[in-house]
Design goal:
about 120 residues; 6 strands; about 40% strand; globular
């Protein structure tokens, strides 16, 4: 399935649901990235990627922002790794943000054909 078709479908869904979002399209890679405000306290992103260079099949990623990581103590990071191991089809991921910040997201990534 074409990543552009899926990206268009996702954008249409965001519009239909009346969700606030900002669409960012990368002209160098096939896909799209949507920063989404799901409700007052819940934000995150949805991305569509072709992954031609590594996985060789397209994926859709949905992630919910949890917290800014900052200078987390080692004990907290160990606890996150344990929690991550008990999740099914989801993961805790740290994403580098602007100006050296790192944010923690709960993320799931699935093949486009299963989306």
């Amino acid at each position: 399935m074409d990543v552009y078709v899926i990206a268009g479908d996702i954008e249409q869904w965001l519009d239909d649901e009346g969700l606030q979002y900002e669409a960012m399209r990368d002209t160098e890679q096939a896909g799209a990235f949507f920063v989404v405000q799901f409700n007052d306290g819940l934000s995150g992103f949805i991305s569509v990627e072709d992954n031609e260079d590594d996985l060789e099949f397209g994926t859709v990623t949905v992630a919910i922002w949890l917290a800014e990581v900052g200078e987390a103590p080692p004990e907290a990071l160990k606890r996150l790794l344990v929690d991550n191991g008990s999740m099914y089809n989801a993961a805790l991921v740290v994403v580098p943000m602007a100006e050296g910040e790192q944010d923690l997201f709960l993320q799931t990534r699935i093949a486009i054909e299963h989306f």
